[in-house]
Amino acid sequence: MKIHHLNCGSLCPLSHPLLNRAIPQLDKFNLVCHCLLIESTSGLILVDTGMGLDDVKNHERYFSNFRFKQIARPKLDIEETAFMQITRMGFNPKDVKHIIATHFDSDHIGGLADFPWAKVHLLKDEWEAALNPKRFREKARYNKIRWEQNRDVEAYETQGDIWEGFKRVQNLKDIDPSIYLVSLPGHTRGHAGVLIENEANIFMAGDAFIQEVQLGENKVPLPISLYSRMTNEDSHEAENTIKKIKALRETRSELSIFCSHDLNQFNKMVNRK
Ligand SMILES: [Zn+2]
Predict the structure, then answer these.
(1) Total number of domains constituting the chain
(2) What's the pTM value of the predicted model, to 2 decimals?
(3) Cα-to-centroid distance, 200 and ligand 1 (Å)
(4) Domain extent for 165
(5) How many A from CA of 85 to the centre of ligand 1?
(6) What is the per-residue pLDDT across 209-264, written as a single tens digit (0 to 9) for each?
(7) What's the CATH code of the domain at 175?
(8) Protein residues with C-beta less than 5 angstroms from the ion ligand 1
(9) In what order do the strands lie in the sheet with 43-47?
């Protein structure tokens, strides 16, 4: 199994002249959309897609009435899309057979439409939240134009498998058994991390946290706590999930734990031998 780390969308959230004057650190608050491309025996697997071709070409359609464009300020560069990167790497995008989604926010599934033939895997709670959004924030974050062309969806319920205190789903359909979905609720109803428990030892935590500093002992910088507060569905659950990830980092030091948007963590994983 070979794992590639791709940045499928640079973001510069909250960057606004007035805000920047009040909180100068905001200028440096640049994020990536960290996705994985896995070469496996069951074909290419994408973990999240980041921005898609249509996000770039037709962004008014996607972001016109949604706060995402104002909050996250995506760069929208076609060369950063998974489709273009995979093609540049010499693969055929048709060989992407599976997409595992941490959750259904636009910056994580913008590229689903570029791979309509792929089987999409996610937790059942997230699928239900996307199909039947309840609260205001859910109604604002999910948009079915993102996934309606992807007919092959596997939504998993967490059963009795508990791993390091987290509910986990084993045996994703037609996927290498060393790859798991791990429930990390809070950011969204059915938000998940992706664990690869083999020689790679990777735990991609999606948006359970957005910067590594949130796992440390020091006070979380204001721009980061602001951003989290604005985007988390359930702050209490999100805090609880972060606590468990902190404990996981203590007990499983061999695991590389990273989130979707931390630029430094992304660079570290790219440079890892
Ligand atoms: Zn995100």
Answers:
(1) 1
(2) 0.93
(3) 23
(4) 2-271
(5) 19
(6) 999 999 988 888 887 888 888 889 999 999 999 999 999 999 999 999 999 999 99
(7) 3.60.15.10
(8) 107, 207
(9) 2-7, 34-40, 43-47, 96-100, 119-123, 153-156
What is the distance in A from the centroid of ligand 1 to the CA of 261? 7
Query: In the numeric block, which tokens belong to residue 87?
Result: 């093609």
pLDDT tens digits for 67-109?
666 677 788 899 999 999 999 999 999 999 999 999 999 899 9
CA–centroid distance, 15 to ligand 1, in Å, is: 16
User: 115-148: per-residue pLDDT in tens?
Assistant: 999 999 999 999 999 999 998 889 988 989 999 9
How far does the centroid of ligand 1 lie from the alpha carbon of residue 26, in Å?
Answer: 17
Q: How far is ligand 1, taken at its centre, from the CA of residue 121, in Å?
A: 17
